[in-house]
């Protein structure tokens, strides 16, 4: 590894130093993947502020060797991380790393171009047009959401950004007719299962919090939102003089993996002139498999659809695909210079040419995310990516079946994708200890360091979530966690014996 | 390089495959840095849509070898990129790549943890607290903006995100007293030199566009905003029943590198109860050198300050530091679950312990950017980073002096940092061809492929910008671009001979 001169002759991109140090970090990471199962999955219970105490109070005056930095990562940082790439990480939703995602990101970070306007790196902007169309076709999205059909897509960092951008587009489309002062009348709709970032986004764009409608769902529809419930809420608001603006449908909710019926909600949204956004952050990736495409059926009625390849599609963080039917609605809200700064070939028709992506997102600057998703699609192909999804769905099916067959447990809501929601059953009618029992079971599993799961609360019930989907997660890890759960359940049930 | 099985045995993080393919990409990038001067700096004039025509219409069914992917990058992508890492890239502002920034990003991408709440990866959240304090101390920021002084910082993706978050914080603080319906009364202030993303941000958070005040600046103050001008605008608005909300001061504007007087504006903002944000996106990095810290003098009157290490601080895209004096003002606007989801040690006092960074930014999910900035600070140290800044300032000084000494040229506004704004002079009084002359000069330089610069328009004048700051840019590249400019000026002036 080259040593680094620290005087005025600093050469930050010297190819020899770059190669030597990058290789050292590749080795470090390969070793990490080899050893990741040796770490407790969830970070050990640390005293908050511990790392702050370990590290110096100020940056060093003089540069330090990479070896020292990596040694500090190994000693001070790794033990304090929760290991999202552990094969026994079943919490939240997965955040997939992969070799293709990693090397795609290396290309993005190494080239370090900024495709904010087409002219600032034409091939980067165009690759983004190509790759979002590829992705849309793989998921079976309707033509009208693709560049090739007059719509178009963009790669953003997160669903929340996508929600903010589409809310702003819907808001400005409405206020152009109503006048800005009518912002107080705009109402937005989602279910009680919709991710809370929807409310954060609505608040960010200035919709009055009193106009957020959180519509109740129930077990009878698998916690999916019904068009009838939306209609009732909208009718009440319209009678009160409000203007229905935006409806968020979710395919694969965070808590339970519930699915809102896209076509029914789309028809309802059209009836009231509302923007329909379909948030398929987690489950959208599954739609590359024909058997899951049905959940997006009706998407031709959507104004926008988003999904996060950084969750379950082997594309390292961050990468969120957002497709819109009307690029002009988006750019009208987000463009900073409708005339000035136009560059060769810029057009507003959403053709896959000369797109200025700064007008499709919150920020001006942006990363070359397209090359990462493109490398993932090229390296694994549709066949490889379907195999990745199938492997986890198969494991989740096995787990669901196995839990259901154990009479101490129950599956709380039928599994649709790779998320299984289950709990220890109440042992007798009106067993008011059942939530404590499950809370203790989850704490026991997580404290063991051998797996990490998180919980949800539905209809007042504490539910344990097993989200299968890690890049390294195989059937044996799901079998192991079941064995672990059985052992811990024995212990907890013994403690609760009357 | 290992070959990849494409059946159900797909192992996306196999350490052998990971090492082999990552090394291949390291080699690819080292070769790119070695050869980057062989490419035209700005992408050749491409037919928009060219890449879309070159690439297949759909993702491949079967995975393809990495060699093929890299060959396609070399053949189809590289010629269509603008090479932001070229030492002769002088356009916009620099976007620095470096070995330390790259390997720091590799660690972030490879570990792929998501520090959205403290418990989801404690060491990642804590490293962020440490590194933003380190950075703040290096820039000489007041204690009250640091965690160690009751404030705190966060790493976001862009200035626009930082502006949106602080605008939302200011808005919600005001509306909590006034009621949401008074959103129509909120007014925001900036200069005609302030980056246009400020208006984009204000629009995003629902401030009525009719309440954006763009205050004129002039050559007499070097295009800095005066407190008198702000006071006049505020007084008019207050008389009209509006509520002054937010003032954006810029240290190093995008067009000209102008500096707004932070202390004066801070006092003015306090007088009217406005939020003061200091946007030091580009020039903030220079404040690690004592001779530039004066520009941030008065920052103790600011509610927030932001700077982008991804521009001129050797930290690959993206990384924006945002510091706030009142973390609670920020989290009140951005928190999604004031009570629910609290985790061990979460507190709201902004102590450097157990910070849930999802409540400090737009998105829930987030990247482990802290490790990247930490590696940059560790590897280069304050001494190395100051040398990096000094090298470019020295080159820009030389260029300014040289341009000023050539009687065909003029420096349009005195250089403060590493941005020089200049033009060919009018050759006689009322020379109305002077803008065309400069436009042609810039086009000739850029078309040569040997350098890339961009322009600005101030007081109706077309100005050429030379932004020095590339990681590979040395004095000789600045001398080369001056030689190139002289040659092209000769040609252009000859064409315009009467």
From TrEMBL, chains A, B:
Q: Which GO terms describe its cellular component?
A: cytoplasm
Does the record's keyword annotation contain Lyase? Answer: yes
Q: Which domain of life is it from?
A: Eukaryota
Q: Does the keyword Repressor apply?
A: no
What SUPFAM superfamilies does its record include? PLP-dependent transferases (SSF53383)
- InterPro entries given in the database record: Aromatic_deC, PyrdxlP-dep_de-COase, PyrdxlP-dep_Trfase, PyrdxlP-dep_Trfase_major, PyrdxlP-dep_Trfase_small
Sites of N6-(pyridoxal phosphate)lysine modification: 311
Give the family this protein belongs to, as stated in its UniProt record: Belongs to the group II decarboxylase family.
Question: What is the protein's name according to its record?
Answer: Tyrosine decarboxylase 1-like
Organism equals Panicum miliaceum (Proso millet)
Query: Top-down, what is the taxonomic lineage of the species of origin?
Result: Eukaryota, Viridiplantae, Streptophyta, Embryophyta, Tracheophyta
């Amino acid at each position: 590894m080259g040593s680094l001169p620290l005087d005025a002759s600093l050469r930050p991109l010297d190819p020899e130093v770059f190669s030597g140090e990058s290789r050292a970090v590749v080795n470090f990471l390969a070793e990490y993947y080899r050893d990741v199962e040796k770490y407790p999955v969830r970070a050990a219970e640390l005293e908050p502020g511990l790392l702050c105490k370990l590290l110096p109070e100020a940056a060093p005056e003089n540069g330090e060797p990479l070896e020292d930095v990596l040694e500090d990562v190994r000693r001070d940082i790794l033990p304090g991380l929760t290991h999202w790439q552990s094969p026994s990480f079943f919490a939240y939703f997965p955040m997939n790393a992969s070799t293709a995602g990693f090397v795609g990101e290396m290309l993005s970070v190494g080239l370090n171009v900024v495709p904010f306007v087409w002219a600032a790196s034409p091939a980067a902007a165009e690759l983004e047009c190509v790759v979002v169309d590829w992705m849309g076709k793989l998921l079976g999205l309707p033509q009208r959401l693709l560049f090739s059909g007059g719509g178009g897509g963009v790669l953003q960092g997160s669903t929340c950004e996508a929600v903010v951008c589409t809310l702003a587009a819907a808001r400005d489309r409405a206020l152009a007719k109503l006048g800005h002062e009518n912002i107080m009348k705009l109402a937005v709709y989602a279910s009680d299962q919709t991710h809370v970032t929807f409310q954060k986004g609505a608040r960010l764009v200035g919709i009055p919090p009193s106009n957020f409608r959180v519509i109740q769902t129930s077990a009878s529809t698998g916690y999916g939102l019904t068009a009838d419930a939306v209609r009732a809420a909208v009718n009440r608001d319209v009678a009160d003089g409000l203007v229905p603006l935006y409806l968020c449908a979710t395919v694969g909710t965070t808590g339970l993996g519930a699915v809102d019926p896209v076509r029914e909600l789309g028809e309802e949204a059209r009836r009231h002139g509302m923007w329909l956004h379909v948030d398929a952050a987690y489950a959208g990736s599954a739609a590359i498999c024909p058997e899951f495409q049905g959940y997006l059926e009706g998407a031709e009625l959507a104004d926008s659809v988003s999904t996060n390849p950084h969750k379950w599609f082997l594309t390292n963080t961050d990468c969120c695909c957002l497709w819109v039917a009307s690029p002009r609605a988006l750019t009208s809200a987000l463009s900073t210079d409708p005339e000035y700064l136009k560059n060769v070939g810029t057009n507003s028709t959403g053709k896959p040419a000369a797109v200025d992506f700064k007008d499709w997102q919150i920020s001006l600057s942006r990363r070359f995310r397209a090359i990462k998703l493109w490398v993932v699609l090229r390296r694994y192909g549709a066949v490889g990516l379907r195999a990745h999804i199938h492997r986890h769905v198969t494991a989740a099916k096995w787990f669901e079946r196995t839990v259901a067959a154990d009479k101490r447990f129950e599956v709380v809501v039928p599994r649709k994708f790779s998320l299984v929601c289950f709990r220890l059953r109440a042992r007798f009618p009106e067993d008011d200890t059942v939530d404590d029992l499950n809370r203790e079971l989850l704490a026991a599993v997580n404290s063991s360091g051998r797996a990490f799961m998180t919980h949800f609360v539905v209809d007042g019930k504490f539910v344990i979530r097993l989200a299968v989907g890690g890049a390294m997660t195989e059937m044996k890890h799901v079998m192991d966690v079941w064995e672990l759960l059985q052992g811990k359940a024995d212990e907890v049930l013994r403690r609760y014996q009357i």
